[in-house]
Amino acid sequence: MVNKFLTATMVGFILTIVSTNSIIAQPEWGFYSQFLKYHKWSIIAGPVLYDKASIDKEYGDYTFSNKNTISFNAGFEYDFYPEKKWSFITGFIVGLEPAYNFSYQIKKEDIYPHFAEDCKDKDKMYSLTSFSAPLLLRLRIQSNKNYYINFLTGLKIMFFPPGDAEFLLRFHNEDDTEIREVFGLRAESPDNMFQGSFVIGSGVSHTMRRILISTKLIYVMNFQNIMNGEYLFDNMFVSERTHGTYKLSGNYIGLLFSVQFARKKK
User: Fold this and answer.
1) pTM for this structure?
2) Which domains, and CATH codes, for the chain?
3) Which of 29, 64, 109, 148 is 20 to 30 Å apart from 185, CA to CA?
C-alpha cells in the first residue's frame, strides 16, 4: 500500500511539472504575489483512515479479522512563505489514535450448550488523543489562474503518552454459576512519549477573494508501532489454545481540508 502511494505521488509530481511548464508562463516564476493577502495561519481538519493491525499466530487454529479504523485530524498549520514556490510548513495537530478494531467468531461447540449458534461480533476502541507537530517541505506549482498544485514531504513529531488497551470475552453457563474467559487481547503503547513519522502527500489550493481553500491527501508512516501486544483464545470446550502477537503501526491516509483567511485591508 505504501509503495503504491509513493509511486502514484511521484508519477503525479512528474506529470504535473511537465504539463505546468507547457501551460504556465510567468514573468516571475516561483513567486505568487496573490498569496500575500492571506494570513500564514490556516485551520485544518479532515478524516483519516488507519491501516489495519497485524497479528502473528504462534500456535493454535483460532484467529480474528482486523479492520481499518476511521478517525480524524484537526488543528492549525503555519506556512512560512505562502507566496513562494518552496516553503516550510509547521503546526499543531490533534488526532484520535486507535487501539483495536476487529471482528471475531467463536464456534458454538466451544461455548456452553445453551448457545444455539456461533458467537459472531465485533469491537472497536480508541486509545488516547495524540498531539503532533509537522515540519514539511512544500512545493507549489500554478495550474491555472486560481488553482495551485502542492506537493508535501517531511517529518512529524507526535506526543503520545504511554497507555494500554484490553478486550476480554467471557461466557456464562445457563444458570450463571460458571464463567469462562475465552478470548483476550492486551496491547500497550511504547514507553517513550514522543514518536516520529514520515509524511508525504499532494493537494490543491484554490484562491478566492476572502479565503484560500486547500485540500491534500497525505500518507503518514510511523517509525515505530503505536500499539504492541498479544492475544489468547483459551478455555474452550473443543478447540485447543491459540496464542499470538498483535501490532498496530498507526500508519494512515488522511484527506485534510484547510482554510486561510484574507488579511483585513488597512
Assistant:
1) 0.85
2) 2-261 (2.40.160.20)
3) 109
